[in-house]
């Protein structure tokens, strides 16, 4: 089963694509089966771009039909619900759409879902999202290959509609004009109209990032970093000594001091995590050394077991709000990852609009840390650890309407910062024995020594501190001294000297230049302190300019939004049909053109105004449809007044004015004025009304004789037509058998309506047709339905039929009598005119009674010609209908 | 936070030739078309702007001014949060017709619709036929916000549209405008489901079947 399914799918999909997994499913247990498949292109550049295709099976064919295509993006999910049921969910039009399926082949379901899951993981790692689809950066193949699939395109359109329109319009050869405002924009204006909500702000954000130079400036900031493993010296050293290390008359904007081993690392101390008397003493000592509070203000003073981290900034910077969002977080990576004998304290701050992070760490000692498991993972663990120790809320800069588009949020991790300083006792050693190291030191070969440095080696191999920089120390190794002396370790262990204390930096945005990197000769500890000074250039957002640029970007988006509004033009604004005759079709056409940049769906609305609706006499072809950008279509407006319209329109003045509404989905609306002069006709009116008109109908508005109360015994129209047949057609062998000439019919109707005499050339058959047409156009038949029903019941008895018919309204009766006498007269000449009572009964039973067997209530659909008249829709039948029988009574009787 | 929180529907109404389409173009595109053809139907324009710190999308329906289309045009009034009535300060008759336009608008919008009166063509003040005082009095009598503006120079155009938006926003804040009402003309991001669609079939035009 599986192979055949696959074959069937491959018949449908492009040969450039392949099917990765396939399964037959149902929406519910009893619904029609569908086939869903994971499809991806074969070529290597886009084979990661999977899409989920849904196929519908055709009823009478094994051929599948693409029903739906969903690109598999980051947010795609597939979930097994058990019992063969599973659910997929994805974003559709900014909403989460969920579709549940049932699968009976549970054996295949597992592997299918696995494939789906893999596809989703790939999508995640490649960051496929609606924007990437919209901009054609991914899944362009779906559109390129399947846009012909009518059904599917509609569904694809739902999901990636932006892209669809873009592509289609390009195919159409429609060229877009990018005006100055949007020429600089990197994405297709076509797609912008669909940018709403999150996509819109993301887009504005990207645009702003591209134009960052226009609303930012670089500000110099100087930073001093000081690090010392104090080896748990009892009490801080003297202020003068500290100044030797920290600098006497500091002019740096920021000073960060990191100490390691501020407490003795015995087992008791491991559990002490927060401040201690030692840290308080250090805070005091450092503060007074650098000039707090006159010159500097302390931002952070934090202890985490052995590590102490201090950050101070020049007063002015704080007063002026240059530094914001200072946060601090400690992380342990010692024994069991919990204890703080080793670890780091990170401090982050926003300086102007750049994020700067200071990480002071004490990493594990010994050669083990060189191994990836130890030092590497410590670093990894620390650098990726979350920084959001606070509630996460941050204060954005004041003012500037567009500041929210600028990333002022505090980055979630250390690595998310623009500039990172990482320093402390990193505990990297030199790959050489003590003797060799000492020799190199004595020989002054620091360069050679540096080449043996583990940190340097590891960095060069790309194992640790990727992206970080360090200048080569041009000072001697800072470890390990006998405390209080200038001698390297003389203890039993005879440790080799090493550059344990280091300062590294990573500058991702802005610039960072190291001014000096030095060690200082404080002998209290077994480590010597180090310091470095950096001159940074950080980004400062000019809020006024940001507003300006933001406004421009937003305006250009609005501009494109408006450009992308569906828009059509019709080459005429109004249509005048002038004189419209009963049953005469008139046509006019106009060109509808899609003048916008997206495809449009248009629709003419006819019953816009309920009263006097134009829909009875006006038709539009095609009334709705799809137009590609630049595409034109000829629209035909057709006017035809049939029985119903004639009836509806008889009461109103002859001048018809209608406003036709041409609606474009999501776009503009056009009004089209329709004017027509509907010529009054007797056709379509009832016998009761016709007998009130003494003058021809066309002029009945002028002679208001309907109100005089005088009623004619017989509609003059019936009388005139019957009279013409009587005069001209008794011996005509076509009469009532042949169709009337359309032209002649029109002429006869005009004569009837205007009272003009009939011309000699008119054929008798045309008069017969005109008469039949008149009788058929009556809203109610000459023999009313209730009378017919009664007669039908009594159709075998001539007398009873006559009795029933004689009780009809006098007008109906007189018309019937008049017509029957005409027919009898015709039958007297049956040798010439070849008519039989049966034929006439057949024709007239239909015309006079509208029996149920013949549906005459609607206008004939073949309105083009006027050929229809007599027996064209009445099937001759061998056995007489009851209505026919009644007519025969009338025709054969003498009474 | 940077997505728009509301969509306001506006209509622009007034006599033919008073400059409705030009006002729209000036507001949305910052340009003045010299030979703007008469609008025969309904045109759209949108602009996203900031009102009281909120990002709001204004969706503006520009209508045909011709008398003959009045009946059809009216059906587009429904569901407007703001109605911008325009007259031409150099054409007396366009001012005289305001009463009719106002009645029309009142009858076909809801009570909370914010009405704004714009006396357009301020750039042609020398040919003025309607004084500021007279129009101001009319506006005051009828509770309209009033400004004279020029679609050509752009003077006061921005202000007119934004003032209306601020008033609508205030109405939302004060509860005078019920967002859940069927035809409030405001779509909140939270109530996206019943969003206004441009070109939506006018409400009284039921599905067409002819």
From TrEMBL, chain A:
Entry's Gene Ontology cellular component terms: early endosome membrane; phagocytic vesicle membrane
Protein name, UniProt field: Phosphatidylinositol 5-phosphate phosphatase, RhoGAP_OCRL
Species annotation: Guillardia theta (strain CCMP2712)
GO biological process: phosphatidylinositol dephosphorylation; signal transduction
Keywords: Cytoplasmic vesicle, Endosome
Top-level division of the source organism's lineage: Eukaryota
SMART domains: IPPc, RhoGAP
Record-annotated Rho-GAP domain positions: 685-881
Transmembrane stretches, start-end: none
Phylogenetic classification of the source organism: Eukaryota, Cryptophyceae, Pyrenomonadales, Geminigeraceae, Guillardia
Single GO MF descriptor: phosphatidylinositol-4,5-bisphosphate 5-phosphatase activity
Signal peptide: none
InterPro entries linked: Endo/exonu/phosph_ase_sf, Ig-like_fold, IP5, IPPc, OCRL-1_2_ASH, Rho_GTPase_activation_prot, RhoGAP_dom, SSH-N
Protein localization: Cytoplasmic vesicle, Phagosome membrane; Early endosome membrane
Chief localisation class: membrane
Pfam families in alphabetical order: Exo_endo_phos2, OCRL-like_ASH, PH_SSH1-like_1st, RhoGAP
TrEMBL record, chain B:
Keywords from the UniProt entry: Membrane, Nucleotide-binding
Entry's Gene Ontology molecular function annotations: GTP binding; GTPase activity
Gene Ontology cellular component list: chloroplast; membrane
A Pfam family that the UniProt record links to this protein: Ras
InterPro entries found in the cross-reference section: P-loop_NTPase, Rab_GTPases_membrane_traffic, Small_GTP-bd, Small_GTPase
Entries under SUPFAM superfamilies matching the protein: P-loop containing nucleoside triphosphate hydrolases
Compartments where located: Membrane; Plastid, Chloroplast
Domain of life according to the entry: Eukaryota
Keyword Nucleotide-binding tagged: yes
Family: Belongs to the small GTPase superfamily. Rab family.
PANTHER family in the cross-refs: DRAB11-RELATED (PTHR47979)
Protein name: Ras-related protein Rab-14
Protein species of origin: Guillardia theta (strain CCMP2712) (Cryptophyte)
């Amino acid at each position: 089963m599986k192979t055949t399914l696959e074959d069937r799918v491959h018949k449908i999909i492009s040969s450039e694509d392949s099917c990765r997994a396939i399964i037959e499913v149902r929406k519910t247990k009893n619904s029609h089966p569908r086939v869903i498949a994971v499809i991806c292109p074969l070529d290597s550049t886009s084979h990661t771009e999977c899409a989920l295709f849904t196929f519908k099976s055709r009823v009478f064919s094994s051929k599948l039909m693409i029903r739906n295509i969903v690109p598999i993006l980051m947010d795609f999910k597939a979930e097994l619900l058990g019992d063969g049921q599973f659910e997929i969910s994805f974003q559709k039009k900014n909403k989460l759409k969920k579709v549940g399926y049932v699968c009976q082949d549970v054996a295949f379901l597992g592997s299918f879902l696995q494939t789906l899951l893999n596809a989703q993981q790939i999508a995640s790692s490649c960051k496929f999202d609606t924007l990437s689809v919209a901009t054609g950066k991914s899944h362009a193949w779906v559109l390129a290959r399947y846009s012909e699939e009518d059904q599917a395109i509609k569904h694809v359109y739902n999901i990636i509609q932006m892209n669809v329109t873009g592509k289609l319009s390009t195919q159409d050869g429609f060229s877009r004009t990018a005006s100055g405002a949007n020429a600089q924009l990197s994405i297709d204006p076509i797609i912008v109209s669909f940018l709403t909500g999150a996509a819109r702000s993301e887009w504005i954000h990207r645009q702003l990032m591209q134009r960052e130079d226009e609303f930012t400036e670089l500000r110099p900031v100087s930073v001093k970093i000081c690090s010392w493993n104090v080896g748990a010296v009892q009490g801080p050293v003297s202020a003068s000594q500290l100044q030797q290390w920290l600098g006497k008359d500091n002019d740096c904007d920021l000073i960060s001091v990191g100490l390691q081993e501020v407490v003795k690392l015995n087992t008791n101390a491991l559990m002490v995590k927060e401040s201690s008397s030692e840290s308080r003493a250090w805070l005091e000592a450092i503060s007074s050394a650098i000039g707090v509070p006159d010159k500097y203000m302390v931002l952070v003073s934090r202890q985490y077991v052995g590590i102490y981290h201090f950050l101070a900034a020049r007063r002015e910077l704080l007063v002026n709000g240059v530094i914001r969002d200072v946060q601090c977080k400690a992380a342990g990576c010692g024994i069991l990852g919990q204890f703080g004998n080793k670890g780091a304290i990170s401090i982050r701050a926003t300086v102007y609009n750049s994020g700067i992070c200071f990480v002071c760490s004490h990493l594990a000692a010994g050669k083990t840390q060189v191994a990836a498991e130890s030092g590497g993972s410590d670093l990894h663990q620390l650098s990726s650890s979350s920084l959001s120790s606070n509630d996460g809320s941050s204060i954005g800069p004041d003012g500037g309407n567009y500041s929210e588009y600028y990333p002022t949020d505090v980055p979630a991790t250390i690595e998310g910062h623009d500039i990172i300083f990482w320093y402390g006792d990193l505990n990297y050693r030199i790959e050489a024995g003590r003797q060799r190291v000492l020799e190199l030191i004595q020989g002054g070969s620091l360069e050679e020594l540096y080449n043996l440095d583990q940190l340097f080696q590891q960095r060069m191999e790309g194992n640790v501190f990727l992206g970080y920089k360090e200048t080569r120390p041009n000072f001697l190794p800072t470890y390990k001294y006998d405390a209080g002396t200038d001698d390297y370790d003389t203890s039993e262990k005879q440790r080799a000297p090493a550059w344990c204390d280091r300062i590294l930096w990573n500058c991702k945005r802005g610039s960072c230049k190291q001014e000096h990197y030095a060690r200082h000769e404080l002998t209290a500890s077994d480590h010597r302190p180090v310091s470095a000074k950096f001159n940074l250039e950080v980004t400062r957002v000019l809020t006024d300019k940001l507003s300006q640029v933001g406004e421009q970007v937003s305006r250009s988006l609005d501009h494109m939004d408006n450009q992308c509004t569906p828009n059509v033009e019709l080459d005429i604004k109004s249509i005048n049909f002038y004189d419209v005759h009963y049953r005469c079709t008139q046509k006019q056409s106009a060109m509808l053109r899609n003048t916008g940049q997206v495809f449009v769906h248009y629709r003419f609305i006819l019953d816009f105004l309920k009263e006097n609706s134009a829909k009875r006499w006006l038709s539009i072809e095609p009334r709705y449809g799809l137009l590609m950008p630049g595409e034109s279509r000829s629209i035909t407006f057709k006017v035809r007044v049939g029985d119903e319209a004639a009836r509806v329109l008889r009461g109103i003045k002859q001048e018809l004015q209608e406003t036709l509404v041409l609606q474009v989905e999501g776009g503009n609306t056009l009004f089209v004025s329709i004017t027509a002069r509907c010529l009054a006709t007797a056709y379509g009116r009832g016998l009761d009304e016709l007998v009130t008109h003494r003058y021809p109908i066309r002029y009945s508005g002028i002679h208001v004789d309907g109100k005089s109360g005088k009623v004619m015994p017989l509609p003059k129209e019936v009388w005139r037509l019957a009279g013409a047949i009587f005069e001209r057609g008794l011996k005509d062998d076509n009469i009532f058998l042949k169709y009337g000439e359309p032209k002649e019919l029109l002429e006869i109707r005009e004569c009837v309506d205007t009272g003009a005499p009939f011309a000699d050339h008119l054929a008798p058959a045309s008069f017969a047709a005109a008469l039949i047409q008149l009788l058929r156009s009556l809203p109610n038949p000459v023999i009313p339905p209730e009378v017919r029903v009664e007669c039908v019941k009594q159709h075998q008895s001539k007398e009873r039929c006559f009795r029933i018919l004689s009780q009809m309204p006098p007008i109906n009766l007189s018309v019937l009598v008049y017509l029957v006498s005409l027919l009898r007269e015709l039958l007297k000449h049956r040798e010439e005119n070849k008519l039989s009572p049966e034929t006439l009964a057949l024709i007239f039973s239909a015309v006079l009674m509208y029996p149920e067997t013949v549906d005459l209530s609607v206008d004939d659909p073949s309105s083009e010609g006027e050929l229809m008249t007599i027996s064209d829709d009445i099937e001759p039948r061998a056995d007489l209908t009851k209505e026919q029988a009644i007519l025969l009574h009338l025709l054969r009787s003498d009474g | 936070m940077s997505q728009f929180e509301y969509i306001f529907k506006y209509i622009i109404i007034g006599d033919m030739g008073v400059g409705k389409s030009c006002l729209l173009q000036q507001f949305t595109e910052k340009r003045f078309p010299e030979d703007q053809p008469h609008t025969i139907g309904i045109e759209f324009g949108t602009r996203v702007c900031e009102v009281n710190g909120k990002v709001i999308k204004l969706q503006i329906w520009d209508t045909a001014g011709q008398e003959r289309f009045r009946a059809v045009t009216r059906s587009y009034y429904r569901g407007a949060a703001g109605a911008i009535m325009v007259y031409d300060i150099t054409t007396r008759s366009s001012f005289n017709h305001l009463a009719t336009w106002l009645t029309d608008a009142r009858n076909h919008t809801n009570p909370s619709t914010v009405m704004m009166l714009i006396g357009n063509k301020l750039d042609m003040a020398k040919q003025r036929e309607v004084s500021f005082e007279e129009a101001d009095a009319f506006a005051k009598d009828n509770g309209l916000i009033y400004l004279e503006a020029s679609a050509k120079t752009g003077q006061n155009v921005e202000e007119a549209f934004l003032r209306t938006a601020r008033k609508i926003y205030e109405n939302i804040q004060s509860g005078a405008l019920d967002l859940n009402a069927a035809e409030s003309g405001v779509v909140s991001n939270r109530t996206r489901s019943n969003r206004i669609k441009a070109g939506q079939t006018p409400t009284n035009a039921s599905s067409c079947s002819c």
